[in-house]
Structure formats: C-alpha cells, structure tokens
Amino acid sequence: MIGALRHKIELLTPERTEDEAGGASIAYMPGPELWADVERLSSTRDFAGDRENRLKRIAATIRFRADIALGTRLVFAGETYETVSIESGDGREKRLTLICEEILS
User: Fold this and answer.
1) Residue 13 burial by CB count (10 A; 0-12/13-18/19+): exposed, middle or buried?
2) Among 84, 87, 105, 85, which Cα is nearest to 95's?
3) Quick one: pLDDT band at residue 1, thresholds 50, 70, 90?
4) Rounded distance between C-alpha atoms, residue 63 and residue 86, angstroms
5) CA angle in degrees (0–180, nearest 5) for 78-47-36
6) What would the DSSP string read from start to end of the chain?
7) Which CATH fold would you assign to the domain 7-102?
8) Where are the chain's structural domains?
9) Integer CA distances (angstroms), 104 to 18, 72, 81, in order
10) Using one digit for the tens of pLDDT, what is the confidence trace for 5-60?
11) CA–CA separation, 25 and 92 (whole Å)
C-alpha cells in the first residue's frame, strides 16, 4: 500500500453558529489535508423535486483517524463529498475507506 496514498483530499470541519432566535446554522470550514487512495465508483441517482440527478461516488482510503464519522465532508478534485459509509478492511485501525457521495449545491 506504500505509494497508493497519492491523492490529496481536504477534510471540511463543521462549525456551528447559534443565532438570536435559538436556532443554529452549520458552516463547513477548510480542515486538514490528507493523502488518500481515491477510486471513482459508479454514480447513484438522487431525485430533487421533478429532477433526477446523478451523484458521483468515490471510495477514499486514508490512514486511520478517530475523528471520522458518517456525514464527514471532504473535497477531492474541487468537488465536495459527504461520507455515507465507513469501512475498516484491515480490522487493525490502520486504514479507513470512506464511501462518499457528491454534494450538489
């Protein structure tokens, strides 16, 4: 696996801001850059109203990090993705594979 982590991805860190009405909004700020092995997966369909969108999907394998959770966002090749599944294939907490779907704005 040495040399396989050849793509840079950037984690996005959520920042919660309280408003005067007691609500909150979440903004995603640039976070750490990581090396990853990124594989493009088949796209999936998403329906928004009457429109059908094709969402890009990737599998990003990174070194183990304890701060990764479902919903973690990352940027790869200028596109933003959200983590929908996390797999630890080695079972020894050395690597994580993040299955991510593109976020449409």
Assistant:
1) middle
2) 87
3) low
4) 12
5) 30
6) -TTT--EEEEEEEEEEEE-TTS-EEEEEEEEEEEEEEEEEEEEEEEEETTEEEEEEEEEEEEE--TT--TT-EEEETTEEEEEEEEE-TTSSSSEEEEEEEEPP-
7) Thrombin, subunit H (2.40.10)
8) 7-102
9) 25, 15, 9
10) 999 999 999 899 998 888 899 999 999 999 999 999 998 877 766 777 888 999 99
11) 36
Here the tokens at position 36 are 């990853």
CA 83, 74, 5: angle at the middle one, nearest 5? 95
Residue 91: both structure tokens together: 């079972």
* Sole residue written with tokens 């183990």: 64
Residue type, 19: D
Band of pLDDT at residue 2, cut at 50, 70 and 90: low
Read off the tokens for 85: 């599944």
Give the largest CA-CA distance in the chain: 51
